[in-house]
Amino acid sequence: MTKIDRINQQILQVLSRDGRISNLELAERVGLSPSACLRRVQELERAGVISGYRAVLDRSKLGAGFVSYIGVGLGVHNKDAQQAFERAMEVAPEVVECHNITGTIEYLVRVECADLPSYKKFHTDVLGTAPYVTSITSYVVMGTPKDLRT
């Protein structure tokens, strides 16, 4: 396991906000030489602490401004039912997150689509036909005061 000291914490904090920062600027921000900073970043990558870099998209500018979290309950509680539901969610382009959770339901799903009519179509045609689904509870996002992913 990689040691997460104060400097590594700073590196991770800066990279989580700006994954495209140059090594030179990152080194300046955390108070290291560029070569020492690069070695630390590479070690964090090798250790899997940093698992990748990605672009953060403004999905509303891509026509997906309607966001909903959906609690999904399954009527059968076995591996086959879970795998069947997960396969259905994997191929649905509106589903951007699908989490198997504990509690009174089995899944929490994040859906992004253009508007309420397109959500209704997803609700009816995808969730309504997904295997083993017995309950669907939608939570429409009206605003996002905090999201560390962006």
From TrEMBL:
Domain HTH asnC-type: 1-65
Keyword Transcription regulation belongs to the record: yes
SUPFAM superfamilies on file: Dimeric alpha+beta barrel, Winged helix' DNA-binding domain
GO molecular function: sequence-specific DNA binding
One Gene Ontology CC term in the entry: cytosol
Any Pfam family hit: HTH_24
GO BP, sorted A to Z: alanine catabolic process; regulation of DNA-templated transcription; response to L-leucine
Top-level taxon: Bacteria
Keywords on record: Activator, DNA-binding, Transcription, Transcription regulation
Name listed for the protein in its UniProt record: Winged helix-turn-helix transcriptional regulator
Native organism: Tritonibacter aquimaris
Species lineage: Bacteria, Pseudomonadati, Pseudomonadota, Alphaproteobacteria, Rhodobacterales
